[in-house]
Amino acid sequence: MNTASLAGITGALLVGLGLFGLVTNPRPLRKLLAFNLLGSGVFLLFGVLARRGAAAGIAADPVPQAMVITGIVVAFSATALAVALLLRLFEETGRSTLRADPPSKAAGDGSGA
């Protein structure tokens, strides 16, 4: 097994773990971490695919590297924004989760008004 195959398997594993975390964890911070894990796996897979193309004799293309670097910067800034919003939510409500509003009595009284 060469290093490209190992990196590809690792990237696929990161994507799988990220998807599992997104589906199973109800808390926003854990979902954010799972989404970052998924993004890191995608970046790794994209880099491995670009490297394999260069190793196969195709001329090296800097575009995949530039896209991965740009994606990392965007993911970092989006994560910082999401953490800031979660901190603001915690400061305002004292909770770190969003819960549904209880149904209001005016909406369910059947008056039709």
UniProtKB/TrEMBL annotation:
Q: Which terms are listed as keywords in the entry?
A: Cell membrane, Membrane, Transmembrane, Transmembrane helix
Q: Does the keyword Disulfide bond belong to this entry?
A: no
Q: Where does the protein end up?
A: Cell membrane
The cross-references to InterPro entries, in alphabetical order and at most eight, read:
CPA3_antiporter_subunitC, NUOK/Mnh_C1-like
| Pfam families named in the record | Oxidored_q2
Can you list the GO cellular component terms from the UniProt entry? plasma membrane
Homology family: Belongs to the CPA3 antiporters (TC 2.A.63) subunit C family.
**Name of the protein described by the UniProt record:** Multicomponent Na+:H+ antiporter subunit C
Name the source organism: Methylocapsa palsarum
